[in-house]
Design brief:
By secondary structure, the chain is mainly beta. The protein has one helix and eight strands, in the order αββββββββ. The radius of gyration is 17 Å and the shape is globular. Keywords: Signal.
């Protein structure tokens, strides 16, 4: 069987798309193993509560320079300000969290300055 160059690129592109994941999961332990949450879409900048979580698994989005910011707020459960922020490239890894944080949101860009009082 003979493959054309365009067919080869189509197969490679599909394989990359299938491997890509943009849903982060939060866990109750520091090693991303226990009590995993539902997946949170890192492209959705909405606020969500995951109080008391100790780690988050950041998936590999399949893009080399896919920059995100995980914004953390205080224990009140609102995303009214930024008390902590974590810049990352989505390459597939576990990140330890501060369990006193009440809510989070993802931003698809670099983090700004903290602005909570």
């Amino acid at each position: 069987m003979k493959f054309t160059t365009s067919a080869l690129f189509a197969v490679i592109g599909l394989a990359t798309y299938v491997k890509a994941d943009s849903y982060a999961n939060f866990f109750s332990d520091t090693n991303c193993n226990e009590d995993g949450s539902i997946g949170f879409d890192m492209h959705n900048e909405g606020c969500f509560v995951q109080a008391g979580r100790k780690s988050v698994y950041i998936p590999n989005t399949g893009l080399i320079n896919d920059q995100f910011c995980l914004v953390s707020t205080g224990p009140d459960g609102s995303c009214s300000c930024q008390s902590q922020a974590y810049d990352f490239t989505a390459t597939g890894f576990c990140h330890e969290l501060d369990p006193t944080v009440g809510s989070y949101r993802f931003i698809h860009e670099s983090c700004g300055s903290d602005n909570c009082p």
